[in-house]
Amino acid sequence: MPNRSTAQRAKEDLREGKSPSTAAGEFVHEEIEHVRKGKHGARSPRQAIAIGLSKARRAGVPLPQPGAGKTSKETRKKASRDYERGQFGAGASRSRRASRARERVLEQEPRDSASRRALSAHARRAARKRGSESRHEAAQKAAETKGARGRENAARKAARTRGAKKVA
Prior knowledge:
Helix content: over 70%
Distance between the termini: 47 Å
Number of domains: 2
Strand content: under 5%
Order of helices and strands: HHHHHHH
Shape: globular
Largest sheet: none
Radius of gyration: 19 Å
């Protein structure tokens, strides 16, 4: 069950007009924190992200299932079921016994899958799968949505890091 504050932040993101994937990011962040703090583990960064996305769908974030060819049929079916449950409240809740069994399995998984290094490697792998045009468009959109102050801060940071590299 996600924290109430996480669900509220996600709802706030949606009210502000942000995309469903941005709102779902709140749940992913929460899941990564759970792994880092030792509440449970994850086999890989992808599993931690998948758990967060599943929670987001069940909490009502309008995040559709992944397209055909992106994931397995079972995963898409599960995502569809989670989405339905979040949108319409359909589907029976998991039994206490099944829920505990799931937690016990996750408790056995490693904690380092949510480390900065593991997440960074995952992000690089995911970016490599996308084309340069797609990455360029994302960067352009990020610059636009950052706002004047955000761009100013980013420019300052870039100047600082450039300066640091010259000294080294």
